[in-house]
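Thanks for the sequence, V.! I ran N-acetylmuramoyl-L-alanine amidase right away. Repeating your input here for the record:
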Amino acid sequence: MKHNWKMGFVAGIMLLLPLVLATTTLTTANAANKTTTSKTAKKAKAKAKPKAKKHYLIVMGHGAGDPGARGNGTTEATFLRKHMLPQLRKYAKKVKGSTITFYNPKKNLVSDTLYHHKGSYKLNKKTTVIMFHLDAPAGHGGHVIIHKKHPTKRDRRLAKVIKKYVGLNRAYNGFSYRTNLRNCNVLRHRGIDYSLVESGFITNKNDVKHLKKHMAKIAKADIEAITNEKIK
Ligand SMILES: [Zn+2]
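Predicted structure:
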């Protein structure tokens, strides 16, 4: 059989052409892809660099028409806002490794949560909530209300502060694991980490005396205990 060499060659080239073109396109696409990937990786790296600081929300108990416990001529809401809040704010500003904000002291986290379905329902799940309260009706010393059976390291540090300046409530020896506090249960069910600090009894003359006398030191130590950062 006679073979037409020229026709075969041309046909061959024509058959190969799409393949060659396709390969070129693929290579270009690959190169483009690689560039995009490395750009994305660089972007992600740049974004991840300033690591998000841990956020703590400090809540002074009661307020907004709820005085809380009464004793020694004052109320829980007033004492916490008048004596403790300014000192906590002062030391919160000195912290570098974490961000500390305060729940609007004109508001009441418990009623915001339970009656208005806001408060604890609206908090970011990564936030850690530290609530300050004073105890009543009768007794001496403070304790930390915790949300797991065993206290965290932060809970232990907070209890140490109470022990040092006011003394611990002998009934709890530092910690009380409670599951019957409705606002706290909202936090618990949402997986939000928290500690509730009962700094002492508002009804106990000595507790209030010690709280007033050492308030600056207590506030500084509390901020250090919360953030695990030494303040100069
Ligand atoms: Zn209270």
